[in-house]
Amino acid sequence: xxxxxxxxxxxxxxxxxxxxxxxxxxxxxxxxxxxxxxxxxxxxxxxxxxxxxxxxxxxxxxxxxxxxxxxxxxxxxxxxxxxxxxxxxxxxxxxxxxxxxxxxxxxxxxxxxxxxxxxxxxxxxxxxxxxxxxxxxxxxxxxxxxxxxxxxxxxxxxxxxxxxxxxxxxxxxxxxxxxxxxxxxxxxxxxxxxxxxxxxxxxxxxxxxxxxxxxxxxxxxxxxxxxxxxxxxxxxxxxxxxxxxxxxxxxxxxxxxxxxxxxxxxxxxxxxxxxxxxxxxxxxxxxxxxxxxxxxxxxxxxxxxxxxxxxxxxxxxxxxxxxxxxxxxxxxxxxxxxxxxxxxxxxxxxxxxxxxxxxxxxxxxxxxxxxxxxxxxxxxxxxxxxxxxxxxxxxxxxxxxxxxxxxxxxxxxxxxxxxxxxxxxxxxxxxxxxxxxxxxxxxxxxxxxxxxxxxxxxxxxxxxxxxxxxxxxxxxxxxxxxxxxxxxxxxxxxxxxxxxxxxxxxxxxxxxxxxxxxxxxxxxxxxxxxxxxxxxxxxxxxxxxxxxxxx
Length: 551
Ligand code: ADP
Description:
five-stranded antiparallel β-sheet; alpha+beta; binds adenosine-5'-diphosphate
């Protein structure tokens, strides 16, 4: 704007200066012309007297640059101050001579040999009928300007410099109040009256913009809070796959560093499956994939975002399904194991029954076959019972209902139930700990824990071994139950796996002793429901001790 004002003011000054100079030159030239004409007329009058009284002195009577010609009334040149009169042509037809003959005096102007000067002629009819003519060179407008060039140039330069200074100052003066407008409070600024409507509009627009910015900030805050607290990852990208928004959950799930908006979404994950899903969404196709990333199983749902039939980006939702897929895997494994476990006794039962049906068993062997069938059926029943217990625990159908449970009384109940079994294997059972050690929980779950641990200690013991059931309180006041034996122990590498469903260290021994492979799984589940910790200590060939510590 400064420049524009300068240009306008300066060009106005320049145009005005040039016009003024041109007009001044024209006026001066007009004055000069009439001065020359007046001078010639005055001189001519004076010379007319000389021509009448003393014609011989005519040549010396005037200035050197003047040419004097005396012409007879028929046009014959009688005298000429610059040339030989006899050699000169008849002057009757000259304009000034004609005018003088007709009106007594005449004037004419003609080009000289040079372009820059013209000759001015003035003629006067003498009393005797002759014509006296005087001629003098007169400058043309061109030569006049050439003569004036130096002062004109100087004047023009002066005008240009002062014009430039005035223009700069003028521009500054005009711009200053505009620059001083406080755009935060435009209406409070005192500026040009003409700018008031504009300032008013700016103030109103500012109000609207401020409100819109506040709204946008508020919405952004809300969006950040909502997405920040989501367990699911959310990434929003534009059509060039640049991130517009990404929440912490998405970064965590992909194990990515902070990824600021504007960066490529592929900085979050470079896995090909993910790129394909993103490109498919940007091509307008919603898609779902399951991928592995940073040791997790992620479900990625990419949906295109449309605006006026055009895909302008995509929204990507990332869900951690590690646990779910692990559960699915375990469930599949469990189903396969269950089928297998059920099939084994059923196949035996079917085989025995087939032999009985076809009469291939001698009468004295029938009893033995019947007890085999009975044993396998019992196995089936305990297996099904264990499966039911586990699935009830899985479903959350059993909870620690907060009843008061005396650990020692459960221990003695279990001991009573298993004593005969232990005795039949030559194993001694012992009970340690005081009465009155109680927990808040579920009697049946504590019973399951104690029973399964004690039964295992009997099953996997050695002849003349011992099983000790113990209840007590830790130094930190937490109640515990412990089942220790002097049995075969668990190899180091199997310790971590014995709580898995159907995991057995020695399959045949487990089967032979009626094990289902689910006992310790039930213990682990029951402990989980009771919020108890399990600690297994075992030394191969020396014995095992399992401690369950309650909260
Ligand atoms: P099972 O019905 O086979 O006993 P469990 O889940 O109760 O199934 O136990 C899993 C496996 O852990 C057993 O098959 C056995 O090999 C091992 N185990 C459990 N308790 C003991 C123990 N007290 N001493 C030695 N090994 C044990």
